[in-house]
Automatic annotation (TrEMBL):
SUPFAM superfamilies: MFS general substrate transporter (SSF103473). This is Solute carrier organic anion transporter family member. It comes from Patiria miniata. The chain crosses the membrane at residues 110-130, 150-168, 180-200, 249-274, 286-310, 330-355, 399-418, 438-458, 465-488, 621-639, 659-680, 713-735. Residues 519-580 form the Kazal-like domain. Keywords: Cell membrane, Disulfide bond, Ion transport, Membrane, Transmembrane, Transmembrane helix, Transport.
Length: 796
């Protein structure tokens, strides 16, 4: 069997990971000592000399190096810097324009600032804004929920190209900031493409059919003929079919979403490694925490901007239809938001593009340079055939894989729980959709604070592998214990809906409620009304605090508009035959009232039944304590994000880090982001007790069993959290065992940094700690099948 480890190692760059640590290119050159190869002078300190620029060579014909060759080693092959857009190492600029004013921002801290702004904007689009536009897609293009879900999931499918982005963007000759900028511009292009279907299909809402929701009695129906079985009701069915315009919308939506997903892959994978390389080692956790906190704040920004654009009609330049923004038929100006984010991302990527492939090294400001001096960036001489073996090497790293399993469980909770959190709050505590979104939005700042606190904690402790694992394990266990507290408030009781959770009449002996619930919306009081079970328009009898599926199922014959400029759909209903306090004698007047009503001069109501639009309000008091406990859980759970990231970066070799992050991105998508909404949705659907009927098939769920929803929804999250806790404990035991074993049994990288005589103090102790961390990371990486023994790569 071929020894692929040598192929992989031979593909490592001939350029140092930092611009002042040049490495010999190949064995064709004259032999050199290890110190010469690593750029170490006789005094034991690295030679701070830049690598040879592209196109310049040192040869016998040109014994004196040119101006561009100064500082290059003899015999060193020129390094191809064509991917750097002619920017000098450590200099900011655009192609050949490198003004002096831009050099003030040529530092890791400014890169963190600009990358954070870009990440904030991208997260706002991909997580918050797209999620808020799902209903608009369905209404304007008449998509089914399944088709809409597929369109949205194309974003996650597009992100799978991260394996290529991180592989090629992480090579030595690649300019990571420019990869990030070009990817962002591709994302902006995809966002613009998504808007194109709007100009192909203009939204035309249905007319105001409030009269169709009323009771229109036909011939009398014997009570024995009443069908009490909800599943057997077959309303008139008019299935929609795709028109040419609607089908053509997919031609733009699918590639647009794929491009948005693909363009979002470089920002954090390449940006995180760039920051870790060019900021002080002690500052790396807090800097990365700032960047990653934008992925938590960004969704809040997206939902906020989404709510703003949804308040404006999709064709705002035309006369508004007679519906309010709270109507289920309202479609907001979703396409304007995609244009807004496309422009914002386009602008935010401009300063990132200016950064060079390499910043000036911070060795003069930080003594912890030995961690960088021995490293070569991976896969500069890259080929696709080596990718599977690089993947296999990482998959056999036990700590790396356990971190990924824990992260997949955590992000499954984040994706699944947060995606359905507004639905859970709205159903469980009976609050309006706008309030449910506001409550869910409060979770996002708490998550951001937790991420930042995790970085601060790491900033104050040792940032080696063992220190990161300690913080990760402690925060994960504490968060796991807190998950048990959110079960304490318990579920709210189901709200009363006639025919679903409560009978139409208190003394109705025909109604019973087995498990599952027996849904029987048809009752003697509304059997003659000819109600359509697909038209869900709930009304409330405030006196009894009982809701009804629609005014028709409440037996209401007359409505009077109570609409205002803010609410065009508010009505009060009268002459409702299913209200308990309704006078039976009025039933004989009902036919005459309706027959004499020509629609223009409605007959005045003869009985006031106190029935109004919307569901009855809930009297559950458990929202506040539940929200307080949930905020605490979110805060503590977010603390572990930065320690987990630092653990991943410290458990692999430095040259493997860009690719390791890219592979983790794919793992999280395949086992976290993509599937979790599916099985979270399946668990939630299992608690539904009232389905909307669409041509004989189940549509949306209209009412859930609160008890089942509460315990199954939170129970699934707790189960996933348990997986994360188990992985954190196993990681702690494994790394602790290796840490105590020390270097005696560890294969270590060849020494690339020697402390000169008389060197002592903080620098010396940090160097010892850093070398020990190198040995620990190398021992873990040895499980991947490639070891470095006496400086030579060998297959294990």
């Amino acid at each position: 069997m071929a020894d692929y480890s040598n192929d992989i190692v031979s593909g490592f760059t001939n350029e140092g990971f930092m611009d002042d640590v040049p490495i010999l290119a190949s064995s064709q050159h004259s032999p050199a000592t290890p110190d010469e190869e690593l750029g170490v002078s006789n005094g034991g300190l690295p030679n701070h000399k830049p690598p040879c620029p592209a196109g310049d060579h040192v040869s016998a014909a040109n014994p004196q190096p040119s101006r561009s060759e100064q500082g290059c080693f003899k015999g060193q092959q020129a390094v191809d810097t064509s991917d750097e857009d002619d920017s000098l190492p450590g200099s900011c600029g655009y192609c050949c324009w490198v003004p002096a004013c831009l050099q003030k921002v040529a530092s890791g801290r400014y890169f963190v600032l600009f990358l954070s702004l870009l990440s904030l904007t991208e997260a706002g689009l991909t997580v918050g804004y797209i999620s808020s536009m799902v209903t608009s897609f369905e209404l304007q293009f008449r998509f089914s929920s399944t088709l809409t879900g597929f369109v949205v999931s194309c974003y996650d499918i597009g992100t799978l190209v991260v394996i290529l982005t991180s592989y090629f963007g992480g090579r030595a000759a690649a300019n990571r900031p420019k990869w990030i900028a070009w990817s962002a511009w591709a994302m902006a292009l995809g966002s613009s493409i998504v808007t194109l279907p709007h100009f192909l299909k203009k939204y035309q809402p249905n007319g105001n059919d409030t009269v169709a929701d009323l009771c229109h009695p036909s011939t009398s129906v014997d009570s024995a003929q009443i069908n009490f079985v909800w599943d057997e009701l077959e309303p008139a069915c008019f299935p929609d079919s795709f028109s040419t315009i609607e089908s053509s919308a997919l031609i733009f939506l699918i590639p647009g979403m794929l491009l948005v997903g693909a363009g979002s892959t470089a920002t954090l994978t390449l940006g995180a490694t760039y920051i870790d390389d060019y900021v002080r080692k002690k500052e790396a956790p807090i800097m990365l925490a700032i960047v990653f906190s934008t992925t938590v704040i960004g969704p809040a920004l997206g939902f906020l901007i989404g709510s703003f654009f949804l308040k404006h009609y999709v064709d705002f330049d035309k006369q508004l239809p007679p519906i309010s923004s709270s109507s289920p038929r309202w479609v907001g100006a979703w396409w304007l938001g995609f244009f807004f984010f496309a422009g914002a991302i386009l602008i935010m990527a401009v300063p990132v593009y200016a950064f060079p492939a390499k910043l000036k090294k911070l060795a003069e400001d930080d003594d912890d340079e030995d961690d960088d001096a021995n490293v070569r960036m991976a896969f500069s001489d890259v080929s696709l055939k080596k990718i599977p073996f690089a993947i296999w090497g990482l998959l056999k790293n036990p700590v790396y894989m356990m971190v990924n399993v824990a992260a997949a469980a955590e992000f499954s909770i984040i994706t699944g729980f947060v995606r359905f959190a507004p639905k859970f709050v709205q159903s469980q505590f009976q609050v309006k959709a706008s309030m449910a979104n506001l409550i869910t939005g409060t979770l996002i700042p708490m998550g951001a604070l937790g991420v930042i606190l995790g970085g601060v904690i790491l900033h104050r402790v040792k940032t080696n592998l063992m220190g990161s694992v300690n913080v990760m394990c402690a925060s994960t266990i504490i968060a796991g214990l807190l998950y048990g507290l959110i079960f304490i408030p318990g579920p709210c009781p189901n709200f009363k809906m006639a025919g679903v959770t409560t009978p139409y009449q208190a003394n109705d002996s025909n109604w019973h409620r087995p498990n599952p619930y027996n849904v029987s919306l048809v009752s003697p009081c509304n059997a003659a009304c000819g109600c359509n079970p697909s038209r869900y328009s709930p009304v409330c009898n405030h006196k009894a605090n009982v809701s009804y599926f629609s005014p028709c199922y409440a037996g209401c014959a007359i409505n009077i508009s109570m609409s205002t400029d803010d609410d065009l759909d508010a009505f009060e209903y009268f002459n409702c035959t299913c209200i308990e306090d309704y006078d039976a004698g009025d039933s004989q007047q009902l036919a005459g009232l309706v027959e004499s009503d020509d629609g223009n001069n409605p007959t005045p109501p003869t009985h006031r039944s106190e029935v109004v639009s919307d569901l009855c309000s809930s009297q559950c008091w458990k929202l506040v304590p539940f929200l307080a406990l949930l905020l605490l859980v979110v805060f503590v759970s977010s603390i572990e994000q930065m320690p987990a990231l630092m653990t991943l970066l410290r458990c692999v070799k430095k040259e493997e880090r860009p690719f390791a992050l890219g592979l983790q991105f794919v793992i999280l998508r395949l086992f976290g982001f993509i599937p979790s909404p599916i099985y979270y949705g399946a668990v939630i659907d299992s608690t539904c007790i009232l389905w909307q009927k669409e041509c004989g098939d189940d549509g949306a769920c209209l009412q859930y069993d609160n008890s089942g929803f509460y315990y199954r929804y939170l129970g699934l999250s707790t189960l996933l959290k348990s997986v994360s806790v188990v992985m954190a404990v196993l990681i702690w035991f494994l790394v602790r065992r290796m840490h105590h074993r020390g270097g005696a049994v560890m294969t270590r990288l060849p020494s690339t940094h020697s402390v000169s005589n008389g060197d002592s103090g903080v620098g010396a102790s940090d160097s010892v700690e850093s070398r020990r961390n190198d040995r620990l990371s190398d021992d873990i990486s040895a499980h991947s099948g490639i070891r470095y023994t006496d400086g030579a790569p060998k297959k294990t």
